[in-house]
Design goal:
alpha/beta; Fumarate Reductase Iron-sulfur Protein, Chain B, domain 2; Rossmann fold; 4 domains; 5-stranded mixed β-sheet; 4-stranded parallel β-sheet; 26 helices; 11 strands
Length: 446
């Protein structure tokens, strides 16, 4: 793609980076076939190629974001399926991130939109605030379906409908969980924000499985939200502040006790932590530290695939349909590890049709774009249910919540199934929904 930026514009490192990305695009249109919003809406401006033209025009002409740009960039899920498909290697992720930051700085949204985004950024990254908000939302949950049908209240309806009917108890985990038997490694585990409230059992399962495999697990004091949620709303300063805190905390842990990896059980967070090096590339105080932290970040399936887990303690007789979270398959290019681990543990693993398409969760997308998110969820659930699974496995809490809102099939994290197969308890969602006979284990292969 030909660009026409001035030398003065290119002196801005963010503009220079985006200009290089824009020049990589050859207009081929392969991205349109795998873009969820283009598949649903059929509008060129709701495809990556169309958004690239809008972003190019905005940046090249140094214009504030227009309503048209905002509309179509807001509809982007950042699922990054286009990057997997693109034969030219266009770095769309960083281009759309730059566009969102510019929108945040140059466009004044309508009051309700502005207020909702401010509330989400102020609540979701902070577990205590989020827990209080969900407790309050419980009282309004029965009104969610009604609000969803009232013009102007659709987003409130989506928030209420997605609020869980009950919250798991908040349980503190020890700062250090020692390895059982011979110590083979030491890792930090990202505690996260939303996941720690919605399903603390996921990290508990990861800790059990890791420690049984000889890995010491550290919950670094002072660590918090990775910054992904505000980052994808264009709130760059807030996202960077959260990221800096984690970089400092993990750097201290690296320098005092040493870390083999920073293990992440929420793939959306993992994609962001792995991008810390890019986020702070122009920050002399943090560039090296951020790159070091990013190099240690591993999705839990990625890390587990590289260590010996031993033999499964049981082979649960369940058919598992694996949902590939976009942040894992497209953002981190991890496609086989979760399925391979589940198969080795004795599960019969399936994958649904259109597995490359997003479920509609995408961080806060299902709250900010509920109509499109709902259509994507229904399409995803229909494809999954066609495989007739006993259980659905996924590696991202947002996907789990989104899919569970549209199906009666239990949805659990991949690591919970692995923990169960290798000697841990039955995942709570399975125990709640499946009878004892369905949970019976077959003989362990010799």
């Amino acid at each position: 793609m030909q660009t026409n930026f001035t030398l003065a514009q290119l002196a801005d490192p963010d503009i220079a980076t985006s200009e290089k990305i824009l020049r990589t695009c050859v207009h081929c249109g392969f991205c349109t076939a795998t873009c969820p919003t283009y598949v649903l809406l059929g509008d060129e401006l709701d495809s990556p190629r169309g958004r690239i033209y809008l972003i190019k025009d905005m940046l090249e002409n140094d214009k504030p974001a227009s309503e048209e740009v905002v509309t179509h960039v807001d509809r982007c899920l950042s699922c990054l399926s286009c990057m997997t498909t693109c034969p030219s290697g266009v770095d769309y992720m960083h281009l759309v991130d730059h566009a969102r930051a510019r929108i945040e700085k140059t466009y004044r949204r309508p009051f309700l939109d502005r207020a909702l985004r401010a509330v989400l950024a102020a609540v979701l990254p902070y577990p205590r605030r989020f827990r209080l908000a969900l407790a309050a939302a419980w009282f309004g949950r029965p009104l969610g379906a009604i609000a969803a049908r009232i013009p102007g209240l659709e987003r409130i309806g989506a928030m209420l409908s997605l609020a869980p009917s009950k919250l798991p108890a908040a349980g503190a985990m020890p700062p250090v969980s020692p390895a059982l038997g011979e110590k083979r490694g030491r890792v930090a585990l990202l505690q996260g924000c939303a996941q720690s409230v919605l399903d603390p059992g996921i990290n508990a399962a990861a800790i059990r499985l890791l420690t049984r495999s000889g890995v010491e697990v550290v919950l670094a004091e002072g660590e918090g939200c990775c910054g992904a949620l505000p980052h994808h709303m264009g709130k760059e300063e807030r996202a960077h502040a959260l990221a800096r805190r984690n970089i400092d905390v993990w750097t201290r842990e690296i320098e005092t006790g040493g870390l083999d990896a920073i293990v992440v059980t929420t793939s959306g967070c993992g994609t962001t932590v792995k991008d810390y090096g890019f986020m702070f590339r122009n920050d002399p105080a943090y560039a090296d530290k951020a790159a070091r932290v990013a190099s240690l970040a591993k999705d839990v399936s990625e890390y587990l695939e590289a260590i010996p887990l031993g033999k499964p303690a049981s082979h649960p007789r369940l058919d598992v349909t694996y949902h590939a979270a976009c942040s894992l398959q497209h953002g981190q290019q991890i496609r086989t590890a979760p399925k391979s681990l589940l198969a080795k543990a004795g599960f019969k693993v399936r994958e649904a049709a259109e597995s490359h398409l997003c479920c509609g969760s995408a961080g806060t997308y299902n709250l900010l774009q509920p109509e499109i998110a709902g259509r994507l969820r229904d399409r995803k659930v229909a494809n999954i249910e066609a495989t007739k699974p006993d259980v659905i496995a996924a590696g991202n809490i947002g996907c789990m919540t989104q899919i569970a809102s549209g199906t009666g099939v239990p949805v659990v994290h991949t690591v919970e199934l692995l923990d169960w197969a290798y000697g841990g308890p039955v995942p709570e969602r399975l125990a709640d929904r499946l009878g004892a006979s369905r949970l019976a284990s077959g003989p362990v292969a010799a």
